[in-house]
Amino acid sequence: MKLTVYFNNAQDKHKVGFALKRLVRRAVLATLFYEGACGGAEVSVTFTDNEGIRALNAEHRGIDRPTDVLSFPLFEEGMGGTRMLGDIVLSLEKCEAQAEEFGHSFRRECAFLTVHSTLHLLGYDHETGEEDEKDMRERQSKIVTAMGLGIKEKRT
After folding, report:
1. What's the confidence (pLDDT) of residue 108?
2. Residue 92 in contact with residue 45, Cβ under 8 Å?
3. Between β-strands 69-77 and 83-91, what pairing exists: parallel, antiparallel or unpaired?
4. Burial code of 8-42, b = ≥16 C-beta within 10 A, e = fewer?
5. What is the pLDDT of residues 91-113, one digit of tens each?
6. Assigned fold of 2-146
7. In this structure, are residues 85 and 42 in contact, taking their beta carbons and an 8 Å threshold?
């Protein structure tokens, strides 16, 4: 599968280097692989902070508070059969706080949130009912575990 990820860093609280970009790309690929996607895909990923994601959350969802990740699916075909999946906006500040809260690594939290968002880009929605939420949680867990970042990972 050919995957193109466009990165945008709209925050200055966390370093966004090659390792973080590679992890996020790997999480998108792992999700697409798990879902049996084939062909090409494009995803845009924006790293932001709590204030940036709060503004987007208020504008697009009417919820005036920070969240961890937002997904903006496109469901469009691009040139040459490439699927333009959409945009992922990830608050690295929230990611760090949740990693601390849940007792696992920043890497694991970033990967988990990327998997979560990619599933949204593929059409999954945990807010449509208990069964859908359970299904999405199971998929997320299996994908993150397949990446070697299961819940029992020690903090690094």
Report:
1. 95
2. no
3. antiparallel
4. ebebeebebeeebeebbbbbbbbbbebeebeebbb
5. 999 999 999 999 999 999 999 99
6. Collagenase (Catalytic Domain) (3.40.390)
7. yes
